[in-house]
Write a sequence for this structure.
DNA sequence: AGCATGACTAGGC
DNA sequence: AGCCTAGCCATGC
């Protein structure tokens, strides 16, 4: 019995947010995943925008490898001055290489669960 | 209850 | 090949 209301609370629950966070933590080091991919693995293939919100909401708080999350083109979506340089530095440190166009080779570093 | 925000994505011109 | 538009999902005021 948890509560008479029937709700156990979002903690450890099946909320999309918790699920998305969980998926992001599963991204192995040296690999990157796209927002849409994470959303799909969370059960909502079109909730890429929600993934964005999660990162904003937990940016710097939760221990999420936020730097391993990029867009479907393999480029960093962050705007200059908002941590995009840090993201690139972290990925580079993990062995993820960027080409002259600032793109990651998803065929090589893309996360494939 | 409705509108605005957010690091998106796919498709069309 | 590059830019624009519409669609999607969840939260905050």
């Amino acid at each position: 019995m948890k509560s008479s209301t029937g709700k156990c609370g979002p903690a450890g629950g099946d909320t999309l947010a918790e699920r998305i966070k969980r998926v992001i933590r599963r991204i192995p080091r040296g690999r990157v995943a796209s927002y849409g991919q994470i959303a799909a693995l969370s059960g909502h293939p079109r909730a890429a925008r929600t993934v964005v919100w999660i990162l904003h909401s937990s940016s710097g708080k939760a221990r999420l490898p936020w730097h391993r999350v990029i867009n479907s083109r393999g480029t960093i979506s962050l705007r200059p001055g908002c941590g995009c340089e840090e993201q690139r530095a972290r990925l580079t440190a993990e062995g993820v290489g960027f080409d002259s166009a600032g793109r990651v080779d998803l065929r090589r570093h893309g996360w494939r669960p």
Q: What stands out?
A: Chain A has five helices and two strands. Chain A has one domain: 16-109. The two ends of chain A are 36 Å apart (CA to CA).
